[in-house]
Amino acid sequence: LSTVNKVSNVFEDVEFCVMTGMGKYSKSYLESRIAECGGSVVQNPGPETYCVIVGAENVRVKNIIASNKYDVVRAEWLLQCFQTKMLVPWQPAFMIHMSPDTKEHFAREYDCYGDSYTADTDVAQLKEVFSRMEDSKLVPLDVIAELEERYSWNSCQLSIFRGNTIYVDCYTVVNEPRTKIHGTTLSIRALELRFYGAKVVSHLEEGVSHVIVGEDHSRVKEIKALRRTFGKKFKIVSELWVKQSVEEGVPKDENQYLV
Amino acid sequence: MEKTLNRIHPVSHPEETYFLQVSWEKDLGTGFGIILSDGQCAWTGKVSEAEISREAADMEMNREKYVEELKKALIAGEESAGRYNFAISRDEENMECHFSYERNLKDGSFRLGSLKLQKVSSPAEVIKELIGYCLDCLGRLQAKNEHLQKENERLFSDWSDVEKRLEKCVEAKEELEADLYNRFILVLNEKKAKIRNLQKLLNEAKESAADA
Hints:
The complex is a heterodimer of chains A (259) and B (212).
Chain A: E1 15-18, H1 27-36, E2 40-41, E3 51-54, H2 59-67, E4 72-74, H3 75-84, E5 95-97, H4 100-109, H5 123-132, H6 141-150, E6 165-168, H7 185-195, E7 199-201, E8 210-213, H8 220-228, E9 235-238, H9 240-248
Chain B: E1 2-8, E2 18-24, E3 31-37, E4 42-48, H1 49-58, H2 63-74, E5 84-90, E6 96-105, E7 108-119, H3 123-211
Antiparallel strand pairs in B: 1-2, 2-3, 3-4, 4-7, 5-6, 6-7
């Protein structure tokens, strides 16, 4: 490495240990670029080593991680330093492993998902934070409805029916999902309701806010009889309510569509 | 040339069945031809445009309205059965046949038109033609029926395919939304935990300042 042309002093007096390269950036390429920027390179990390650079993970990398002594950083960070000709601050996304000291420092700056406590985020960063989170459980619809209400997102065009629990009269026998009538516009209405935020249920039970009926009114009598036994009354509306609400992008007044 | 073939029963002998074929060009109002047969004999006649106009005038009826009535009486078939009467009277030798059609009213009826039909010399030919016409119609209807049925099946399968796809889209949207909200909540709660922690530190600092 005696023949390097120094192009900057970004890494002046900084010692690196490059363990593996990545893709078209080989280990030796990364090492020579470090030297060009004034840094030094060792083959095994020691007390003076700033950090271990890793492109692809292997057994040696795993051992280094297990020792819990060094900061293990993705090669992407190095590439960003080369590109910007600056010592780019570490961010959670770059860290494969952190030494206890670094971990403590990060805990002050970032939450456990790597989102900064103080710096504003943007779409790309938030995406990155989300992508590093473990596959998460799904939030139930009523929690979403609450959240949207708290942050006034409930006027969103995709939340026309949010907070409503709806039974669609598309079964020949009420409350018998096995008797579903296929190929009717009611099944499309049911999908539209779900798309625009409603909770669509296959059983007409206490807690349902609306029942949607189509042209066939043969079960309305039975549904009304059932309603008399309920403490909380639901509204029976024609499918036109769904259609026109979706067309206009706002929930229309149900009372105009009562059956 | 358009044609229709209907079954009619004369008012005088309701048990007898006659076959009435009406043929016309474009519109009934421009004149039409009539073939009447009882299955053995056949008679034929024509009504010209001028005669239609004259009949309408005699009845002091709007010509268009009169033509509408004619259509209902002569070509509508089953739908207007019972609302129109047909009178058929034949002479001894079956040489001439008098045919008239009238609109049935609550109290009596009024005559829409009448004409003398001439006996056809070879009724077998006429009847053959009538049966031929029926078979042609049947064939056409069958082909159309098959075509429509296929079309219907195709539409139905397209519909259910699109419905399934739409359902997938809806499911994906619901899942994406629930997943993003979950991640959002986790990150948001981390920030709130930090704020709580800072509040705690602030209170502690205040307390120790007060103590000092």
